[in-house]
Amino acid sequence: MKGVVVKSTGSWYLVRDEAAKLHRARLRGKFKLKGMKVSNPLAVGDKVEFDVETTGEDTAVINKIETRENYIIRQSTHKTAHAHIVAANIDLALLIVTLVSPRTSFGFIDRFLVTAEAYDIPTVIVYNKTDLYDEEMQNYQRQITHMYEQIGYDVRAVSARNNEGIEELKKLLHHKTTLLSGHSGVGKSSLINLIVPDLELKTSEISNFSDKGVHTTTFAEMFEIDPETFIIDTPGIKELGIVDIPKNELSHFFPEMRERLNQCRFNNCTHFNEPGCAVVEAVRKNEISLTRFESYLSMLHGDDNRK
Ligand code: GDP
Ligand code: ZN
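A: This is the predicted complex of the input protein with zinc ion.
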């Protein structure tokens, strides 16, 4: 049978088959990922082939993992030298942010976008809590939208409280596996509640299968919205994951810089204090926003706050 992993606790996996039935599954033998030390060989979103065991217990055995389109990793909390795969095969990331209570910093947004570029995951920025924005803030939000749209990002404005913009969000997700991210307090759970019908039912269905006593809050969970439409929630994880980007490659993950790189005088330009830098020139001419450039510089110098 074929299925997708909707929950991974490290030793047990919950696999959803093509008829939406859930199976508690384990891995046959040892799977190893080439060249990577990971604490979990399988993650939420992994597509697998499995057999249902006929001998009494209602369990399944996974014997094949499909090659991943992409995956996000973070430092393992248990074994520091290991990486932990958070989720795999993600088509889209929704970054939930807000201008108030609590305001999301550009530093955080841009760091997330850079990581998503590195993982090759398209990102939509979703400004929530628009019901709280006064006129001045609404103007500001439009300016921000313009700034990100110019670089090619999709920006949405929604209010979970007033159920505004939610239908449009749902359309974005259609037939995709979408990861929802954001700082705690931005309204991620409120939005998931609006997006996923019968969320409570699905959550309890999944947790019924989980190992008792295992702290599952740090593991990603996958919910079905419609057939072939899934969302992945990563409770407690606000950043997308870890990536190690060499300083002289950081600008490759800023789309507005990437398109100007071959115009710099030096091909190893870090766009900081080198003469003949096309990026700095574009910032001077207001063709690249100063806000984005500041995010770039703080990432370059490794001194950005991770708020
Ligand atoms: P999470 O931590 O990101 O999952 O955020 P929650 O969904 O728990 O929401 C945090 C707080 O923000 C709660 O008090 C929500 O009622 C509130 N909240 C969420 N969405 C909105 C919104 O669109 N407008 C307003 N005014 N409050 C919201
Ligand atoms: Zn340059």
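The domain at 247-300 is CATH 1.10.40.50 (Ribonucleotide Reductase Protein R1; domain 1). The chain has eight helices and 13 strands.
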